[in-house]
Each structure stands twice: as C-alpha cells, then as structure tokens.
Amino acid sequence: MASSLSKASLFSAIRASHTSFATSCQTRSFSQSLQRSGVRMGEHVSIKPPAQPSTRTRTRAMARSELPQDLGLLPGTYIRQLWRDMPSIFRQREERFRLEWLWLKTAFQNFAGVIAYCRYFNKGLPLEFKERRQIAMDFHRRMYTAFAAGDTNTISKICCTGLANELKTRIAARPKNEKVTWSLDTYNRDASTFWTGARVVSDRATTIPEIPDSGVRQVIVRITSKQSTGKYTAPVNGKAAEDSTAVAENVKQRDCTEYIVIQKLRWSGEDTGWRVWGTATPTTVDDLSNPLFAPGLTMSERLEALK
C-alpha cells in the first residue's frame, strides 16, 4: 500500500515556502493592564494562544506557485547498484544476500504502492509504466541542454526549485563571454539497462497526510550514456567567429552513469506535472545500517530511530 510522508517534513516544507506576515497593533504596559483587570502581580496568569490554522487550511490558502516542490527523496528508497559494483557473492555473501532481498522486497512494495496510489487513493490517475522511462530521458536531455545554453526559463519549468536555483547559480557564476557546449552522443545500451540506455530502478508513490487528494510520485531512472562537454569564448566587439576564440576548447567525451529522479506532485486533486528533482546515489552496503533498511524493526521503531 502507498505509505505516507512524515508530518514533520511536510510542515517544514510548507513553512519554508509560505512567507509569514506581521500586523501592526497598539501596545500598552503589561503590568498596568494586569492591575486594571484586578489581577495581582505574582499570580499565575494563563494566556490562551491564538488558534493556528491547520495544514490543510494553510495549503489551500497558498497560491499554486507557492506550494513546496522539494519534499526530499522519499525515505527508504532503495536504488540498485550496477552489477559490477555489488558485493562479491563469494567474499561478502551475507551483504549481497541482504541487498538482493531488499531489492526484491522493495520492488514488490513499490509496485503495490503505485497501484494503490493511482487506483485507490487517487482514482483515475494514469500509471505511466510505459512512459516513465522516456519521460526521464527527455527531461535529462532538456535539462543539460538548457544548462549549457544558460536557458534559465526552461530550467525553471522542468526542474524543482532547489535544483533550478543551484543550476541558475552556476550559470550566473560563469565568465561573461564563456559559453558551454554539451551533447549526448549515444546511449550505452548494455545489460544494465536492458540494452535501452535507461532503466527504471525505483518507482514510489505516497499520500501526503492531512491533505486530501494529495501526494507525490518519484521515479528514479538509471541512464548510461556517452556525453561530450566543452567551453569557448564568444566573439566580442563585432569580431567574426574565425577571428576569435569561439571554438570549443577542451572538449571531453566520457561515459556517464546517472540516476535521474523525476517527480510529480499532486495538491488537492491537481497534478503539477513531472519535474526533475535531481540525482541520487545507489544503495550500498554502508546503507544497510540505516534504520530504514535494518532487519527486524517495526515501522514505528524505524521512524523513532530516525529522530
């Protein structure tokens, strides 16, 4: 079944995105007001705090552009490593068995969670099992193309706030006349991606507490490719390209393995569309000590250990 996000993480995300406002008011001496009301100094006075609006009320009052996008990677997300990076089945048999068991268990749980999220909690949502891999590949190419071209508008449209701000900062830090080139030359079609260049390694969905018809779905796709990057200095003062250094310098081609995270948020029955959340790293043997992956613990014990 689809799990739920912790309320603390949701509240902090909403507080960070919702700007508070202050109202001006007249003040008077606290001691004078007590004396006038007949209360002696030294007596205990309980003041009832004003009622705070619920998360549901605050969320509905927020504009769609103010709703948080960065809820973080869903806790307990298992990302399978490449076969060559897995522990040896001969020298680390126990660790290898635990990783393989986690992969099988989470794959079943995630599949059931997505079905429940799209067919039970939010009836009528498309499963997009066939489309998710291509969506990630398209967003991956668009993101890097826009980053190389300095296209901040496209970055804002397809990336979550945190990633978009990071890429914009890096673009702004470039020298004024420096231009960057990027190209995806080819996908490395091998067994790790079923000879397609991209493989879905995680697909999770969860509801958001206290907000009806709301939730988040995150898909992680491993993309293996050959990419070329370079930079050059743009022509200045009317110089022609051949008279300047407007030629790509230090063009490098390399093999890249990336775990692209795309997510789709749903707020009060409205989908926000797919966006790139960022990249993730595979789950390793060191992560087995994490309470979310440790064996023999109940869900409440796992959550308590994370506090």
From TrEMBL:
- Tell me which species this is from: Aspergillus saccharolyticus JOP 1030-1
Q: Read off the PANTHER family from this record.
A: 39S RIBOSOMAL PROTEIN L45, MITOCHONDRIAL, LARGE RIBOSOMAL SUBUNIT PROTEIN ML45
Asked if Mitochondrion is a keyword of the record, the answer is yes
Q: Which UniProt keywords apply?
A: Mitochondrion, Transit peptide
Checking InterPro entries in the record gives: mtLSU_mL45
Q: Subcellular localization, per the record?
A: Mitochondrion
Superkingdom is Eukaryota
Q: What is this protein called?
A: Tim44-like domain-containing protein
- Keyword Transport recorded: no
Q: What is its main location?
A: mitochondrion
The record's Gene Ontology cellular component field reads: mitochondrion
